[in-house]
Specification:
Helix content is 64%, strand content 0%. The chain has a domain of 64 residues. The termini are far apart. The chain is mostly helical. The protein contains 6 helices and no strands. Helix 2 runs antiparallel to helix 4. InterPro entries: Pants/Emi1-like.
């Protein structure tokens, strides 16, 4: 079987770092720096954007199967905001914060 048939059977993962490069480029613009200074009182040193770009470029040097495993592991390790409380915990927390408003209209 030719390599073309193998690629058709299993789509190849394409990792792009353009997004990270654009975010880094924007980080050094006066608009972003002034916004950060206005909001936080400090300028952004853009270290997080550098780290993200480096990480992306580093991933591009690995095999496709390794990239898929790394990205899958990262996705599983991230906690989504809605998983922190059970429905019962969320209900009791809501009532504690806003229970005094029930029945008022």
């Amino acid at each position: 079987m030719s390599s073309d048939g193998e690629e058709a059977a299993a789509p190849r993962l394409r990792l792009s770092c353009y997004k990270h490069f654009d975010m880094l480029w924007f980080c050094y613009t006066p608009a972003h720096q002034l916004q950060q200074y206005y909001r936080l009182g400090t300028l952004d040193n853009c270290s997080q954007k550098w780290s993200a770009l480096y990480d992306c470029l580093n991933l591009k040097t690995k095999r496709t199967s390794a990239i898929e495993d790394i990205l899958e592991t990262r996705e599983k390790s991230e906690h989504h905001i809605w998983t922190f409380r059970s429905p019962h915990e969320a209900k009791s927390h809501w009532r504690k914060l806003f229970g005094h408003l029930e029945g008022q209209e």
